[in-house]
Amino acid sequence: MKHLSILLATLLFSLALQAQKQTVSLDNITRDGTFYARSVRGLRSMSDGIHYTTLEEGKRIVKYQYATGKQVAVVFDLEKEMKGEYDIKRIEGYEFNGSETKILIYTNAEYIYRHSFKANYYVYDIQYNELKPLSENGKQQIASFSPNGEMVAFVRDNNLHLSKLKFGTESAITTDGEYNKIINGMPDWVYEEEFGFNKAYDWSPDSKEIAFIRFDESNVKEFAFPLYQASYPNNEEYSLYPGQYKFKYPKAGEDNSVVSVHVFNIKNRTTKTMDIGEETDIYIPRVRFTKTEGKLGIIKMNRHQNYLQLMIANTNSGVCNTVFTDRNERYIEQDVLDNLQFMEDGQHFVYVGEMDGYNHIYLYTMAGRKVRQITSGQWDVTDYLGYNASTKMFYYQAAAKSPMQREVYAIRNDGKKQIKFSTVEGTNSASFSKGFKYYINYLSNTTTPTLVTLHDGKGKQIRVLEDNKVLKERVAQYEISPKEFFSFKTSEGVELNGWMVKPLNFDTSKQYPVLMVQYSGPNSQQVLDRWSIGWEQYLAAEGYMVACVDPRGTGARGEEFRKCTYMKLGKLESDDQIEAAKYLGSLDYVDASRIGIWGWSFGGFMSSLCLSKSDVFKVGIAVAPVTNWRYYDSVYTERYMRKPQENASGYDDNSPINHVDNLSGRLFLIHGTADDNVHYQNVMEYVDRLVQAGKQFDMFAYPNRNHSIYGGNVRNHLYKMKADYLLRNL
């Protein structure tokens, strides 16, 4: 009886605790950051490899010791050094010069597109305790120290400038820069968005030269959209008459910028044009100096992006020689651009490519001769992390165990010795100190919020930097439905991976509505073993099952799986999402008549297309969707589809705008009117076709919002609106 009483008391206590738990609200997801995992960001290894710095509270740059974690010094304190001379309220970013005697900081950043921004830069001299503005002639962009720390290059008004710190002089390297016409040292819109960078210049290692890309976008057509007063920010100047924003945006099959490569000699103040060939309909997505004086590496790609050349330019003569080529029958992903690295010995370079059908590390001589393939196997290297010359080890992240996980490894340059650093399953990434004496590992999985740990170069854990203990305690106060992974085979015999979150108080005897979430874009992944508590937990509390499936075309499963969607973007992906819906509908606890699908951007394109290809979906929500690939930009679209002039059926057969007659279910379209990426045009033209086809649908537009649709109360409103829509229609 005593034991029974104890058991009963324990059970009642457990039930009482359960009753006290909260369910996830929309405010938790969109406003409060309740489940946001803390991390360690902005940490920079110092050149000695045994210290690092962090930016704390936007006020101080603090130096720490890796081994002990003890604070060594406050390198810069904004409140102490300001002395009221300059109006700097917060440091937003910083970098040291090579000798770590000066710091370049920026503040008042004014963002333009995804990566680009203007800011006020300042130079702080540590030895003399002196802070000076980099320039007093207007905000600057992408400022950077020369390797010797004596100069700073930056862009302003589309021109490249040079500041000599010792003499306090500023001079223009280029003078022909003009908005919507000529850009020097900084990419145009499509390069920034699709080649993922905002700095199109590079210092030579000896600080004698600056190489830069010049973009002539004169023949690129302009795209314009209206700007309203709205709020966050409030545009008072448009209170009565809307304004207009115009920028150069090359759509698929249209003219791109004509690019050229130039090298400025600082001593002679002369600029030499590099001979990259007569063909102008090409891409130059990177320029990077080699370790040899007077030798510049230029990456050149054809318009189809299936032919990559590494050219080595003689900066004195401008003569370029191609030392390496990568040809692919389909395309080369832009990820390779930052994974082509010149080694410190000046004799070799590293390239991460798909030459054997999987993404692996290769070592080449500077003459382009392959030394060897470093990694191999039926799995993908997902990130190249560097090379340690003293131990002759390459470091990388890979999906070697499962496409749904990531591990960190090192392998000797002969490929014979491999070390696995990751000890806990999930998604691991690492940041190594200079010299590879230490590294910081970032781990998360479905049950572990970001865990940041410091390790020595052999993998031994030294200490925990962030364990998110507070978040774990907070999560324990909520009813959370666990994320369960699953896989299934389609009718074509393709195995697909997915996850599901079942409703709270799940009962196998009941049938539940399902909302499928997905992105589905090329080389993307949503089905990953990583920490995330989002909208799916709110829906689970409201009685929905939420599921996600990565279709063909997504990443970490080799080249064939990734590129089988080539020339027919959307076809196989939508086929797979429809198959996933049918699989889910076959489960005993799913109501097959109440399955919905939603997505954002490429995911919105998929939601729209799926509703025209099958009646398996009752509801579709498409946020900022591409509705016609002819409306999207040249670099991204043509990489996967070639030009519409070459592949008209690939474009037209798989764009939702051409399938409005077959639309079934209830469709909800949502878009921002100031979306510079996926233009509002996509929805407006789609709406017209739907209307003419006599199809009923719902639509909502957010004034002045870009592709991310946020600002003020916007994000909370968006998710509340979507939730209400599902409640009414699913």
UniProtKB/TrEMBL annotation:
Taxonomic lineage of the native organism: Bacteria, Pseudomonadati, Bacteroidota, Bacteroidia, Marinilabiliales
Keyword Hydrolase: yes
Domain Dipeptidylpeptidase IV N-terminal: 100-449
Keywords: Glycoprotein, Hydrolase, Protease, Signal
UniProt keyword Ribonucleoprotein, yes or no: no
Superkingdom to which the source organism belongs: Bacteria
PROSITE patterns: PRO_ENDOPEP_SER (PS00708)
Pfam families: DPPIV_N, Peptidase_S9
Annotated signal sequence range: 1-19
Protein name: S9 family peptidase
Gene Ontology molecular function: dipeptidyl-peptidase activity; serine-type endopeptidase activity
Gene Ontology biological process: proteolysis
Residue ranges constituting the Peptidase S9 prolyl oligopeptidase catalytic domain according to the UniProt record: 532-730
